[in-house]
Specification:
The complex is a heterodimer of chains A (545) and B (270). In chain A, 61% of the residues lie in helices and 6% in strands. Chain A has 20 helices and ten strands. In chain A, helix 4 packs antiparallel against helix 6, helix 4 packs across helix 11 and helix 13 crosses helix 15. Chain A starts with a helix and ends in a 6-residue tail after the last helix. With 270 residues, chain B is mostly helical. Chain B has two domains: 90 residues, Cytochrome Bc1 Complex, Chain D, domain 2 (Orthogonal Bundle), CATH 1.10.760.10; 107 residues, Cytochrome Bc1 Complex, Chain D, domain 2. The chains are: A mainly alpha (545), B mainly alpha (270). At the A-B interface, helix 4, helix 6, helix 11, helix 12 and helix 16 of A face helix 8, helix 9, strand 1, strand 2 and helix 11 of B. The structure holds protoporphyrin IX containing FE. The site of protoporphyrin IX containing FE has 27 residues of chain A, from helix 4, helix 5, helix 6, helix 7 and helix 10. Protoporphyrin IX containing FE binds next to helix 4, helix 5, helix 6, helix 7 and helix 10 of chain A. Chain B: Keywords: Cell membrane, Electron transport, Heme, Iron, Lyase, Membrane, Metal-binding, Repeat, Respiratory chain, Signal, Translocase, Transmembrane, Transmembrane helix, Transport. Chain B: The cytochrome bc1 complex is composed of a cytochrome b (QcrB), the Rieske iron-sulfur protein (QcrA) and a diheme cytochrome c (QcrC) subunit. Chain B: One of its GO terms (molecular function) is lyase activity. Chain B: It is found in: Cell membrane.
C-alpha cells in the first residue's frame, strides 16, 4: 500500500521534503507497516502508570551525565598531592580518584552540576523504581502473564542499588570509604568463603590499590550494560503484554482503553521527559549532594560519625545498626552473627519481594491471564502483606538513621535502637492487622454503596417524624466498577480417595496450600460481593434504606 | 636495665614522676620569678580570687560545694583549671540548670567575661590546672588549614562528623555542632575535655596542632567558606539527601505526572 502511494505522489510532482525522506526510508526499511501496527498501541491515562516513565527518564539522565563524568574522572588509587582550588585540602595526600572528583567539582566547567544531577537522579531513579514496584504490587499487575516482567523490574531495582553503591564509592572520600569498609565487613562475616571473596574483590588486604578501578568497570560498564538490556526487555514485554488497566465500563481483560501511542502519548511522553529532566536539573542546581570536600579523602584510620549510605542501601545499614553484636566461636573460628545475620536478612527481605508473585499464584492456583488491575482493598491479604513489608523496610530505614533522630529529636540512641529491634518484628504484624481491617471496611462500604446508594447528606423528615438520610442510587458505570472484581474461593484439600476409591496420599504441600488459601480467602477474609438477588431485593419496592 | 624498665611500668611510677616534676618546677619558679612584678600581680590576682569566691558561693556552690570540693550534684572543681571554667561558663553550660539529664547543654552565657575571669581565678587557686589560652595560642596566625583538617578527621570527626556538625553518643549524650564556637572555646574544649569529650593535652595535640584545627574549623565555617553546590540540607549527609530526594524529588515528579495525566483527560472530554 505504501509503495502505491509513493508512485502516485511522485507523479503529482514534488512532495514535501519530510515526506520524501520518509518515503526513502520506508522503501528500504519497511517501517510504515510496522509503525502503523504499533502506533495505535494504547496507553491508559493514570498518573501511577507514569512512575515507570519517571524511572526510565532518570535512567537516561544518569547515563548521559555519567558519560560526561567519565571524561574527567580518573579511576586510580595512586597517591597524589592536592593542588586544586579548594584551600582546606591543599597539600593533602589523596587518591587520584578523589583528586579528580575534586577537580570535577571545582575546576571543570559544569562539573559540579553534572555530578549533582548524576547523584540526585540516582536517588530519584531508585525511589521511582520503589514506588513503581509498589504500584505494580498493590494493584496485582504482577500476575500472569507479567511475572517475568516483575522479575525484570525487581532485578533492575537490585542492580540499581549496587550500581548506585559502586558509583557512590568511586570518589574514594571518607564517607564512601567507610561504606566500602562496611561492605568488606559484611563480606568477611560470611563463613568460610568470606575472607577469600574479600581478598579477591579488593586484590589483597582492604583497601588495597584496586577497588576503585574495579568498581569503576562494574559501575560504568557491567551493571549499566545489564540494566540497559533489562530495561529494553522490560519495555518490550510491556509493549507485548500491553498495559493493564483498572476495571471500568468498557474495559475488559481483552482490550486497553486510553490514548494511542502516536501521536498523543508520544508527544506527552516526550514532553514528560523534559519535565523530568528539568525538575531534576533544578533540584541539582538548588541543593548540594555528596560534598566530598567536606568529607576529605578516604584513609582507613579515619572515620566520621553520621556515616550513612544513600537511602537505597539504608535498610542494610539499619539491619546492621539494630542487630546486637553477637559472636560465636566454633572450633576456633569466629562467626560474627552480628553482621552475618543482617547480611542474610538483606537477602531474605529482597527475595520475599521477588518471589511473591509465584507464591500468590501457587496459593490461588489461578492459571488465567489478568489484565484488569485489582483495587488494593479487594485483595486484602496481599495488600496487608505488602504494607507489612513496607513497614519493615521503613523501620530498618529508621534504624539506619538512628543517630540523626537521636540528635534532632533529643532522644537516646539506645532507646531508638530498642524501639527498632522490637518494631522490626511487631510493626509488620500491627501493619498487617490494621491494613486488613481497613481493606475489609472499605469493601463493606463499597457493598453498602452498591446496595443502598450514595449518601447524599440530605436529611429528610418522614410524615411520622422519623429522620432519614436520602441515598441516591449509583449510576450503572459506578455499579459496574464497584462489582467488577472477582473473588476467590479458599482452596480445599482434594478428596481423600481417588477416582478408583483408593485412599490417596495427601501431600503436605497441598495441606499447606489449603491452609494459606483459607487465610487469604476464607471466611471473614473478604466481604462477599453483593449478589444480583440481593441488589434486586433491596432496590425493588421500598425506596430508602 | 630489666629492673628499671619493670619499675617504670609500676602503677605508682607515673605519680612519682609527676611529684618530682612538680617539685622541680615549683623550685625553679621560686628561684627565677621576678620578685617585684610578681608581687603586683599577686595583689590583683588575690582580689580577683576574692571576687570569684563570692560569685562562686552564690551561683555554683549549691552543686559544687562551698569550697568547690564537689557534691552529689556536681563534680569537684579542684584542679580543673581556669580553662575549664572559662569554657563551661563562657559557653553558658555553667551554671547548669539541673544536674539531671544526659548532658548539660550550652546556652547563652550568664556571666560577663570579667566575672568569668574572676570565677576562673578562684577555681585556679584551688588547685593547678590548664590556664585560659591567650590569643597568641588560639589565634590562627601561622596555622596550616589542611593539616588541621587532617587532624580534625583523625581526632574529632568520629564524634563531631567531618564537617563539625555534631553527632549522637550513647544514652542521649551528643557531640554538639562546632558551628559558631569561638576559637578560644575550641582551644579550651581540647585542653579540658568537657563532659564526654576526651581531653587533648599538649602531649597529644601540640599547641600548633590545636591552632591548625581551629584554623580548619574557621575555614569551613566562616563568611569566606567555600561550600558550593546549593542548599546544604543541614550538612547531615545521605539521610537528609534521601529525604529530600523522596519528598522534593520524587514528590515533585509525581506532582508533574498527575498534572500531565490530568491535562489529557480534559482534552479528551472537550
Ligand atoms: C543505574 C545507573 C547508575 C547509577 C544509579 C549511578 C549512581 C552513581 C552515584 C550515586 C555516583 C556518586 C556520585 C557522586 O560523586 O556524588 C556515581 C558516580 C559516577 N558515575 Fe554513576 N550511576 C549510574 C550509571 C552510570 C553510567 C552509565 C556511567 C558512565 C557511563 C556512570 C559514571 C559515573 C562516574 C564516572 C562516576 C564518578 C564521578 C564522580 O563521582 O564524580 N554512572 N554514579
Amino acid at each position: 500500500m505504501s509503495t502505491n502511494e509513493n508512485a502516485q505522489s511522485r507523479e503529482r510532482g514534488k512532495a514535501p521534503a519530510g515526506e520524501r525522506v520518509a518515503d526513502w526510508a520506508d522503501g528500504r526499511l519497511g517501517i510504515y507497516s510496522l509503525a502503523k501496527a504499533n502506533m495505535r498501541k494504547i496507553f491508559p491515562d493514570h498518573w501511577s502508570f507514569m512512575l515507570g516513565e519517571i524511572c526510565l527518564y532518570s535512567f537516561i539522565i544518569i547515563i548521559l551525565t555519567g558519560v560526561y563524568l567519565t571524561l574527567f574522572f580518573h579511576p586510580s588509587m595512586n597517591e597524589v598531592e592536592y593542588h586544586g582550588s579548594y584551600v582546606p585540602l591543599q597539600g593533602q595526600l589523596m587518591s587520584e580518584a578523589f583528586n579528580s572528583t575534586m577537580h570535577i567539582s571545582f575546576d571543570v566547567r559544569g562539573g559540579l552540576l553534572i555530578r549533582q544531577i548524576h547523584h540526585w537522579s540516582a536517588l530519584i531513579f531508585l525511589a521511582g523504581m520503589f514506588v513503581h514496584m509498589m504500584r505494580v504490587f498493590f494493584t496485582g499487575a504482577f500476575r500472569k502473564p507479567r511475572e517475568i516482567n516483575w522479575l525484570f523490574g525487581f532485578l533492575l531495582f537490585v542492580l540499581g542499588m549496587f550500581t548506585g553503591f559502586t558509583g557512590y564509592s568511586l570518589p574514594d572520600d571518607l564517607l564512601s570509604g567507610t561504606g566500602v569498609r562496611f561492605t568488606e565487613g559484611a563480606i568477611l562475616s560470611m563463613p568460610i568463603v568470606g575472607t577469600y571473596i574479600s581478598m579477591f574483590l579488593f586484590g589483597g588486604e582492604f583497601p588495597g590499590h584496586d577497588f576503585v578501578a574495579r568498581f569503576y568497570s562494574i559501575h560504568i560498564l557491567l551493571l549499566p550494560g545489564i540494566m540497559l538490556g533489562l530495561v529494553v526487555g522490560h519495555l518490550i514485554l510491556v509493549f507485548y503484554h500491553k498495559h493493564t488497566q483498572f476495571a471500568g465500563p468498557g474495559k475488559t481483560n481483552k482490550n486497553v482503553v486510553g490514548m494511542p501511542l502516536l501521536p498523543v502519548y508520544m508527544a506527552k511522553a516526550g514532553g514528560f521527559f523534559f519535565l523530568v529532566f528539568g525538575t531534576i536539573a533544578a533540584i541539582a542546581a538548588l541543593a548540594q549532594i555528596n560534598p566530598v570536600w567536606v568529607f576529605g579523602p578516604y584513609r582507613p584510620d579515619q572515620v566520621s560519625t553520621g556515616a550513612q549510605p544513600d537511602w537505597y542501601m539504608g535498610f542494610a545499614e539499619g539491619l546492621i545498626r539494630f542487630m546486637p553484636g553477637w559472636e560465636v566461636n566454633i572450633w576456633g573460628h569466629t562467626l560474627v552473627l552480628g553482621v552475618f545475620i543482617p547480611l542474610v536478612l538483606f537477602g531474605v527481605v529482597l527475595a520475599a519481594l521477588a518471589l511473591y508473585p509465584f507464591i500468590e499464584s501457587w496459593i490461588t492456583g489461578d492459571k488465567r491471564e489478568h489484565h484488569i488491575l485489582d483495587r488494593p482493598r479487594n485483595a486484602p491479604t496481599r495488600t496487608a502483606l505488602g504494607v507489612a513489608w513496607v513497614t519493615m523496610y521503613m523501620i530498618t530505614l529508621v534504624g539506619g538513621g538512628n543517630d540523626l533522630w537521636a540528635t534532632h529529636f533529643h532522644l537516646s540512641i539506645n532507646s531508638i535502637t530498642w524501639f527498632v529491634r522490637i518494631f522490626f518484628f511487631v510493626g509488620p504484624v500491627i501493619a498487617y492487622i490494621l491494613t486488613k481491617r481497613i481493606c475489609l471496611g472499605l469493601q463493606r462500604r463499597d457493598k453498602d454503596k452498591v446496595l443502598h446508594g450514595r449518601e447524599t447528606g440530605t436529611i429528610k423528615r418522614l410524615p411520622h417524624g422519623e429522620f432519614i438520610e436520602v441515598h441516591e442510587p449509583l449510576s450503572q458505570e459506578q455499579l459496574f466498577t464497584l462489582t467488577a472484581h472477582e473473588q476467590y474461593e479458599p482452596a480445599a484439600v482434594g478428596p481423600a480417595v481417588d477416582e478408583n476409591g483408593v485412599e490417596r496420599k495427601i501431600k503436605r504441600s497441598e495441606k499447606l496450600r489449603a491452609k494459606i488459601s483459607g487465610a487469604y480467602f476464607g471466611e471473614d477474609q473478604q466481604i462477599p460481593k453483593p449478589t444480583v438477588e440481593e441488589y434486586k431485593e433491596i432496590t425493588s419496592g421500598h425506596g430508602h434504606h | 636495665m630489666k629492673k628499671l624498665s619493670a619499675r617504670r611500668r609500676h602503677p605508682l611510677a607515673a605519680l612519682v614522676v609527676l611529684l618530682l616534676a612538680l617539685a622541680c618546677t615549683g623550685g625553679l619558679y621560686a628561684a627565677f620569678a621576678p620578685a617585684s612584678k610578681a608581687q603586683a600581680d599577686e595583689t590583683a590576682q588575690s582580689l580577683a580570687i576574692d571576687e570569684g569566691k563570692k560569685l562562686f558561693a552564690v551561683g555554683c556552690a549549691s552543686c559544687h560545694g562551698t569550697k568547690g570540693q564537689g557534691s552529689s550534684d556536681g563534680p569537684s572543681l579542684v584542679g580543673v583549671g581556669a580553662a575549664a571554667v572559662d569554657f563551661q561558663v563562657g559557653t553558658g553550660r555553667m551554671p547548669a540548670a539541673t544536674s539531671q539529664g544526659a548532658q548539660v547543654p550550652s546556652k547563652k552565657a550568664v556571666y560577663t567575661q570579667a566575672e568569668i575571669d574572676q570565677l576562673a581565678a578562684y577555681i585556679a587557686s584551688l588547685g593547678a590546672g590548664p590556664n585560659v589560652p591567650t590569643e597568641a595560642e588560639y589565634g590562627t596566625e601561622g596555622a596550616d588549614i589542611a593539616k588541621g583538617g587532617e587532624l580534625f578527621r583523625t581526632n574529632c570527626a568520629q564524634c563531631h562528623t567531618t564537617g563539625g556538625k555534631g553527632g549522637a553518643l550513647t544514652h542521649g549524650k551528643y557531640a554538639p555542632t562546632l558551628e559558631g564556637v569561638a576559637p578560644k572555646h575550641i582551644y579550651e574544649a581540647m585542653q579540658t575535655g568537657p563532659q564526654n569529650m576526651p581531653s587533648f593535652p599538649d602531649t597529644t595535640l601540640t599547641e600548633q596542632n590545636k591552632k591548625d584545627i581551629i584554623a580548619y574549623l574557621n575555614a569551613i565555617d566562616s563568611d569566606e567558606t567555600v561550600n558550593p553546590g546549593g542548599l546544604e540540607l543541614g550538612g547531615l549527609g545521605p539521610v537528609s539527601e534521601g529525604l529530600f530526594a523522596w519528598i522534593f524529588g520524587l514528590g515533585a515528579l509525581i506532582a508533574v505526572a498527575v498534572w500531565v495525566a490530568a491535562r489529557t483527560a480534559k482534552a479528551k472530554k472537550s
